[in-house]
Amino acid sequence: MSELDRLNNDKNEMPKIPDVLPLLPVRDIILYPAMVLPLAVGRKKSIRALEEAMATNRLIFIVTQKNIKIEDPTPNDVYNIGTVCEVLQLLKMPDGTLKALVEGINRAQWTDFKLSDKGYVEIGIKIFDEKIEKTPEFEAIMRRAIALFEQYIKLNPRMPMEISVSVSNIADPARLADTIASNLAIKNSDKQIILELVNPIERLEKIIQILNSEIEILNIERRIQSRVRNQIEKTQKEYYLTEQMKAIQKELKQKDDAQKDIDELKDKIKKTKMPQAVRKAVDKEISRLEKMMPMSPEATIIRTYLEWILDLPWEKSTPDNLDLKRAKEILDLDHYGLEKVKDRVLEYLAVLSRVQKIKGPILCFIGPPGVGKTSIAKSIAKSLGRNFVRISMGGVRDEAEIRGHRRTYIGSLPGKIIQSMKKAGSNNPVFILDEIDKIGSDWRGDPSAALLEVLDPEQNYAFCDHYLDLDFDLSNVMFITTANTLNNIPSTLLDRLELIRFSSYTDTEKLHIAEEFLISKQLKEHGLKPGELIFENGAVEAIIKNYTHEAGVRNLTREIANLCRKVVKELEFNKELKSITISPENLDKYLGIPYYERESIAENDIGVVTGLAWTEVGGETLTIEVNKMKGKGSLVLTGKLGDVMKESAQAALTYVRSSSKKLEINENIFSNTDFHVHIPEGAVPKDGPSAGIVLATALASVCMNKPVKKKIAMTGEVTLRGRILGIGGLKEKVLAAYREGISTILFPESNKKDLVDIPENVKKKLQMIPVSHVDEVISLAIEQLSDNKKKTKINKKIRK
Question: Is 690 a catalytic residue?
Fold first, then answer.
């Protein structure tokens, strides 16, 4: 017996419907009585409602949500009328969801909406009586509905013909209306309207109205389809005639515009130097292009592809200028300092002059912003006589931006590497990949992984872009990458790079750069003649100290430009003025009040120590404060400290506590006193182990109740045994201390090798003391030590 025949039989064993049932709200589905439907259920309340139904009488009330996006519907989010259903089958899936097979029993309206103790929604229901006496009018409406539905099925190819046979055998008007409505491809809102019509005759009249509308739409669709089919046949006919015309024109030696374009491409191919494999691929694409309709989309794609190949410098290079003296002059003229970078470029030129062919180096300039990483790359290209191209890698997240998209995608293009090679016009440019540490990655791929091939001299001779699908030789390119920090560069990529570190500029170096480069450049850019703007002695130094606080010279450039604008405005307003002199005294007239002031260093303060920190923008001084109060020996850490710094504080306290006897500290202080360590500027995150000796000194100072000496700063990692381990970024830290007026610096003995990088003028003004143990630091940093022998030992070390 078929499903519809079974449903047509009177249900003598219809389950008794109680007044209260579990609620199952569904999305995008309208369920009618006598309709069997599978459901996938995943919401917790719905799962509990189904489980309750199976545990009792298998009955559940199903109603449709008004908005499918709502996860936890309220009474206002569901329709008032739904269907009482019987759960025929329930299956639990491995992911915790349920699959249920339900059968509609009767229309009903919910009257009460509340959450039960078992975690599902429980509703009161009102059952509708749909029984009606048959009359000739009812019979006529039923026949009309059946006839229209049969016509609808014939016009709709997606509907099986067997449905019309089953529908014609239904004698009950209510069942007939519900069966037709469930098989109509109409909006759910229309289906809900039909569900809410309790009277079967009204329901059938509404269905007849909808069927008339749908039949009219299907007839229109058929007419459109027939018209399109005729148009396609006409297009095929035109194509056939066009091909015949082409053959005639070929015989008559006449050529159309498309053929002229192809001939131009062929001429360009002959003149362009390219590898044999590339030429073979180009000839194949030209052959395909000749066989295509000129206006077809594929022809346009092939034409664009060929133009890209022909515009690339496959075997075109610029000759290197191997004059080392000229190259050194250019580099010195454009940039002050940066000796390591200049030496590396001159070494490359020297080797190139001997071997003629050398793999392009892969350099990585690491340093804070504004120290000249990008600008020195331009000078390198100028000194070598090569073309220069630059890609900013900041924010690049898509691998296709490096390798390109495959030609199967609409609007696809080569990646940035190939685009830049086309822009360079030669196969040996100086190619800078700027801000390589700012590359991101997401579901579209990892661009840094795509760069592995580009930046590997053993692989980049055959770089394959997805769009070209041909090997391009990048081995002659001089790649230069720049970054502010190494932390964000993957180790596999870092392994391919030759690192050259750029340090922060000292105030003296900034003064030289300003006087020799920046001022003359800004005077020219602002139209100022020589003599119209005069800087007195100390004026530029005042700008550096009071209006900038940076590792590089970008802000210094901006302040000089700001000064030039103010001077130009004043000269234009007052034509009698011939020149303006800038002195330290009148700077605030043009630049406003100073932005930065040197922090005063506390004199002989207990528990306050100056530390040194390294950041991406250079070195910084860091004040660490420790206070003690009555308590139970706990340690409080504030100032937005990272995990490593917190552990350093614990290690420092442990050492001080273990050395209490040696440091003449009362041991009871550690059981009845709480220590609070705070690092000011609490909004700025701080982390790293190099503040270990600073924390130990501050804690020792508080416990000993003795002040720390003035103008002393320190850096170094501390162990539980008091040993001091080496740190990084010593030069930047020393320059920061020098900038802030510190006179003495304590640093790890293992970092003595790094002193060669510190400028001589800085070392002359600072007392640099290497230390290997915390006891030495405490002896040097804390006033009024009773152990004079220890002092004598340390003083001997300083003199040595």
Answer: yes
